[in-house]
Amino acid sequence: MYTYAWYHWLTFFYIYCFCGWVFESTYVSLKQHHFVNRGFLRLPMLPLYGTGAVMMLWVSLPVKNNLFLVYCSGVVAATLLEYVTGYVMERLFKVRYWDYSSQPFQLHGYICLSSSIAWGFLTIFMTDVIHDPIARTVLAVPPVILLICDFVISVLFTADAYESIKAALALGHTLEAMTKLKADIEELQSKIELLREEAIERGALTREETAEKLAAAQAEAARRLAAVRSDAEERLATARAETARQLQAAATEHKERLAETKALAEKRLSDVREETTSRIEAAKAENAERIEAAKQRVNERIAEVRTEVDARIAFDNRLTRLSTRLEELKHRRQSLRPAKKLHAFYRRGLLRGNPTAVSSKFAAALKELKEQNSTKIGPFA
């Protein structure tokens, strides 16, 4: 068994990678009712199957004559490989490319009892049936040809694996960024909605309505001042008329009572003048107080309107800032689309080649990407 050279093992690895791809692509394509290029790579290879096959051969060929040990070694080796590979890939790429969570007797979704049992039988089948003709064919090929073939396939495999790993890492970062941006967008939308509801509850005015209200307040103030001035002028005119009437009455009385002494007449005339002056001054003081009170009421109303205007301007500014931030986040989310066609090609391949892939942290983002890539519509397709 250990007579194989390193390039023989490398050839076995590539052959079983291809066989695993044929098996998986056929099985998934039948389930999906359309062709699925299954796997992590874009080449027709599944490294997990190649690695598993080589590992199972290493542990089972020494005990090939004991089917029970072959079965047990295959179960242990393949299950361990599947768990470690699934765990590492999910930690690196934020995506679980196969998921056994719905299967009974599963562990963290990476392995399950039915899969482990199948690995054991597959190990027996491969060891006793498949590997012998493959090994004879490989050993019959001249080493130089094998080396050339291994070299060419290794170059293609390495380049494909490099781009696939880059795409998978970028996909993980994209899922993380999409989830964070979506949360930020939803938070901003919630803030904008609450701000609008608050404005409605408080009876927030538009700038035009505020300007009209301010103009109406100023007009009302002018009307009140005019009314006060008019009333003051009327009262002053009444006082003057009353004074003139009293003066006329005094003059008439003076004429009628020529018999009275001049001193008495002058005294009464002086009393009338003093009384008139006092009444005029009292009227002026009262009018001044009324005008001052009216001015104070007008100033208070103007201050209220200005406060409403400032509140409305602050509301508009805040709403504008939130709306601008919302548009920036939406633009950033759309800019997560791969810039190069090659990167987009590998991302589509990862998503379409692994239709059962799941992500515990970024399930919604992964679902969105899958839907957009299945229809080729959307900023991430």
Provide structural commentary.
The protein is mainly alpha-helical and 381 residues long. The chain contains nine helices and two strands. The protein has helices at 6-32, 47-60, 67-93, 113-140, 143-201, 207-256, 262-334, 341-353, 363-375; strands at 106-107, 111-112. A two-stranded antiparallel ribbon has the order 1-2. A hairpin with a 3-residue loop joins β1 and β2. α5 crosses α8 (341-353).
| SSE order | HHHEEHHHHHH
Major sheet details: 2 strands, antiparallel
- The total number of structural domains is 2
Proportion of residues in extended strands: under 5%
Low-confidence stretches: 377-381
Query: Which structural class do the helices and strands define?
Result: mainly alpha
Total helical elements: 9
Tell me roughly what share of residues is in helical segments.
over 70%
Number of DSSP E strands: 2
Distance between the termini: 48 Å
Our Rg estimate from Cα atoms comes to 48 Å
Overall residue-averaged pLDDT value: 81
**Adjacency order of strands in the biggest sheet:** 1-2
Instruction: Choose one word for the global shape.
Output: rod-shaped
Helices, strands, pairings?
Layout: H1 6-32, H2 47-60, H3 67-93, E1 106-107, E2 111-112, H4 113-140, H5 143-201, H6 207-256, H7 262-334, H8 341-353, H9 363-375
Antiparallel strand pairs: 1-2
Which features does this protein show?
381 residues, mainly alpha, 9 helices, 80% helix, 1% strand, rod-shaped, disordered C terminus
